[in-house]
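In response to the reviewer comment on reproducibility (Comment 2.3), we provide here a single inverse folding case reported in full, input and output, so that an independent group could reproduce the run without further information from us. The structure tokens appear first.
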């Protein structure tokens, strides 16, 4: 639903303290009295619990969130995580007490635009922070779209490279092998000298090269090639990672080829691939389960392991990102039009799950 009025920005305040809420309300009224070059006025919607705040976000039309982390139904980083999950594209400013600075920094590192101390806050600073946050978020969204586009372009390039290898180099090698075999047979016939035995080594080298080209081309574009459906491709992926010394990998994959429009499948496949690589590389798991199932009118794809698990809050707040895998997974989840969830706790294994609604 979009009830947006041009020039009016709706601010959602999620804060359980009525006194603090009243103060913010008064500041917004004060801000609206001041003349501003951009002519934008603010309207405040106040919700005292996270549940009520999330419900307001689902209604749409929120331009900025002011969030208190300590709420009756949620505390700390979890409050931020759930709010951001409810509205990933909406700028968010944290309202904190003096003592929460460390947590506030962690939340800013994890994607919030700013944090403000409630004590000593003035209408002037609130107005400035809100305007900057909206600008910064729109810039961040542009970068995000660009990075999603890069992922798409990369996939398109991989796919065309895969075809070149398969149809160009692969076919030429096959033609070379067939010609060689036929010439050798002819030569044998003409001369009566048995040469097939000596040359069989060359033919088997050629077979090996051909197989390598096929494997490279398949890995570059596991779904596009030969019209393999995602179910089949994921099943093959599981086989590829299974080996005697590694964890047991179970693939419970229903045949779902027809659920997927183009692009959804390759991105979902890559999420499974990355989650599987992570589980094998980091989790020291004994069992990894990949499941692909119909869910409602869409599908649910999950990779779970019984390994070491991870501290998601700590990873999100880390000053230096360890790797790119989890980040790219989220980007791909959005491109696939789905909702990606990562559930994990130290010592309790990990679950990466994406739910994709069917194409309408
Ligand atoms: N299934 C898992 N079990 C335990 N820890 C995990 C798991 N998946 C990820 N992690 C932890 O999260 C970190 C970040 O994962 P991510 O995939 O983003 O990066 P990476 O695997 O380290 O590097 P990259 O994916 O860029 O090669 C990992 O370094 C690891 O500590
Ligand atoms: Mg990784």
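Designed residues, in position order:
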């Amino acid at each position: 639903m979009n009830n947006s009025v041009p020039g009016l920005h709706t601010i959602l305040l999620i804060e359980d303290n009525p006194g603090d809420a009243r103060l913010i309300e008064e500041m917004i009224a004060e801000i609206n009295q001041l003349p501003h070059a951009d002519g934008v006025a603010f309207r405040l919607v106040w919700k005292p619990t996270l549940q009520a705040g999330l419900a307001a976000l689902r209604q749409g039309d929120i331009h900025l969130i002011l969030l208190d982390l300590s709420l009756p139904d949620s505390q700390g980083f979890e409050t931020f995580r759930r709010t951001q999950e409810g509205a990933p594209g909406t700028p968010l400013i944290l309202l904190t007490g003096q003592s929460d600075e460390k947590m506030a920094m962690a939340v800013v590192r994890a994607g919030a635009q700013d944090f403000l101390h409630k004590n000593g806050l003035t209408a002037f600073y609130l107005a400035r922070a809100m305007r900057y946050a909206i600008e910064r978020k729109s810039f961040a969204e542009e970068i995000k779209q660009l990075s999603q586009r890069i992922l798409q372009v990369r996939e398109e390039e991989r796919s065309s490279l895969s075809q070149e290898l398969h149809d160009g180099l692969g076919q030429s090698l096959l033609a070379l092998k067939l010609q060689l075999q036929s010439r050798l047979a002819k030569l044998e016939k003409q001369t009566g000298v048995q040469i097939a035995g000596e040359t069989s080594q060359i033919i088997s080298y050629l077979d090996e090269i051909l197989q390598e080209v096929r494997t490279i081309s398949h890995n570059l574009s596991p779904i596009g090639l030969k019209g393999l459906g995602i179910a089949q491709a994921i099943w093959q992926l599981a086989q590829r990672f299974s080996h005697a010394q590694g964890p047991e990998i179970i693939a419970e994959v229903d045949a779902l080829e027809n659920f997927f429009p183009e692009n959804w499948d390759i991105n979902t496949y890559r999420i499974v691939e990355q989650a599987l690589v992570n589980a094998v590389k980091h989790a020291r798991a004994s069992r990894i389960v990949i499941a692909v199932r119909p869910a409602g009118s869409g599908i649910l794809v999950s990779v779970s392991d019984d390994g070491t698990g991870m501290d998601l809050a700590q990873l999100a707040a880390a000053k230096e990102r360890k790797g790119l895998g989890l980040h790219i997974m989220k980007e791909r989840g959005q491109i696939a039009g789905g909702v990606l969830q990562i559930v994990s706790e130290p010592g309790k294994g990990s679950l990466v799950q994406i739910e994709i609604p069917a194409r309408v």
